Structure formats: structure tokens, C-alpha cells
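Notes from the 1:1 (GR / supervisor)

We went over the backlog. Supervisor wanted to see one worked example end to end before approving the batch request, so GR pasted a single chain during the call. The sequence is below; no edits were made to it. Supervisor asked that the structure be written out right there so they could see what the output format looks like.
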Amino acid sequence: MPEIDIRPAIAEDIPVLVKFEHHYKSNYVWQMDLRIEDGEVTTNFREVRLPRVASVEYPRKPEVLLDDWSRRSALLVALLNLKPVGYISLNEGISPTSAWVTDLVVTEPVRRKGIASALILAAQTWARNRNNRRMILDMQSKNTPAIHLALKLGFEYSGYNDHYYTNQDIALFFGQFLK
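Structure output shown during the call:
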């Protein structure tokens, strides 16, 4: 496979990025069990196999992404043969000394080829250069490919927020201290 180049997005990238297939497929979901009894709150997530492959819509609409990107701290683009094939958006200021990855998308034909990993590694370098000490990834509880990627890259589950996205999906957060 040719080398992946990663650079900050330029104006010409934006129309291409909006047209990416943002949906994904999954055979699994992280199901949440919440128990509140006797002053104790217990939350468990477990991976559950779905009866069939589900196509999951991305939690942000393309027209919203355009506005969001203009307010992000960084938007990095992965290029393969000089063509955009993925992107990652980062935001600072949500919590002190942390960079948040709010969007990570790779086009369907080149998924599972290391592009998302390369984008996260480039984002970590960007965050370190800006003196961030921690990186947080947010993702839908249905996004098992992203969950497995986060765990593979050494991120740890660090919480959730129910009804986080406009479509009311649960957001899972995975964090990692930057070295």
C-alpha cells in the first residue's frame, strides 16, 4: 500500500470531505445497563452481537459538519495517492490540557488499512505540540469498529454521556495520556 500523507485541511478539501460515506456497519453494539439502588449507581457496558449487520448513520449531518469544522482547533486530512481518503477533527478548550477528537472518518473502500490509526497518531503529535497532556475520543456506543481501534491504540474507557448526539445516541469516551 502506498504511503499515507497527513496534512491540515485546505479549502479545496472541504467539499470532498462532506461527500464521504460517514455511515458504518457493525455486527455488535455496546449495550448499557444502568442500576440505581440504595444510593449506588452502577453502569455496565457489554458488547452484544446483533442478529444481523446494522448500517449505522453518522451522528452529525454533513451540513452541520461544515459549521463545526470552522470552529474546530484542527482538521487533518489523510491522503492516499494525493486523494483525500480520511479526516480527523480536533477541539481544544473542552477540558484543560486535553484535545478531543470529535470526528474520525475514513472512506469505505480503504477502511481497515491503517488510515484511522495514522490519523490518530498524527492528531496525537499535533496535540503534544500544543502542550496537551491528554487526548479524548468520542464515539457512538454502536461504533464497535472505532471502539476496537481505540482499545488497540491504548485508549481506555473513561465515561459516557446519554443522549449526547442530536440523534439521542449514547457517546462513549476513551482517553489516553500523551507521552
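Supervisor's comment: The longest strand covers residues 40-56.
Batch request approved.
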